[in-house]
Design a protein that fits this description.
single chain, 180 residues, Arp2/3 complex 21 kDa subunit ARPC3, 6 helices, 73% helix, 0% strand
Length: 180
């Protein structure tokens, strides 16, 4: 990967991560979008995991860590893998499907962890269902934030690749949106 592309991708991820520091509705954040973007655009898989994860951790140093952070980070890394899938099927529908999958995965894993580790809900199927139902209002914001930030990150970078040839990946044909 050329330096210009690496720098631009890293700046995009860092900017998204630090947007978590400005006031926003609960769960309206770029978390899944950063992971999807990293998986879809970094050519080196190690960088696809490391750059977004380090940006996330850096913003958490400011926001603060919580007991379920390991679950959030593990889910975040799984969402990077969805970004790898997007890379192979790069199209608006693949990006949309990946965004939905990432949002859903985040919802299921983090709320399961809340149910499993907490005392707020009984450790029964009904308690798990109650936990998931109580989290639905937060899921709306998660999904909305993921969609908005994914459109911004992917849209601005695809536009930048077309405008600035130095940002293009060697194998990427920016003339069509459906090819990688």
């Amino acid at each position: 990967m050329n330096r210009e592309r690496f720098f631009a991708l890293s700046i995009a991820v860092l900017a998204a991560a630090f947007s978590r520091l400005v006031p926003h509705p609960p769960n309206f954040t770029p978390i899944a979008a950063m992971a999807l973007f990293g998986g879809a655009f970094f050519s080196d898989r190690r960088l696809a995991f490391m750059v977004p994860l380090m940006a996330m951790i850096a913003s958490d140093f400011v926001i603060g860590f919580h007991p379920l952070a390991p679950v959030v980070y593990a889910t975040f890394l799984l969402v990077v893998c969805i970004g790898f899938w997007i890379k192979r099927h790069f199209s608006p529908s693949a990006i949309f499907a990946g965004t939905l999958a990432g949002s859903f995965l985040f919802f299921v894993t983090t709320n399961f962890a809340v149910w499993l580790s907490g005392t707020l809900y009984p450790k029964t199927a009904a308690g798990l269902l109650t936990c998931f139902v109580a989290a639905i209002p937060f899921f709306r914001n998660t999904l909305a934030g993921d969609l908005v930030y994914t459109v911004l990150l992917f849209g601005l970078f695809v536009w930048s690749e077309k405008r600035f040839p130095a940002l293009r990946a060697p194998q990427r044909d920016t003339g069509t949106f459906s090819e990688v």
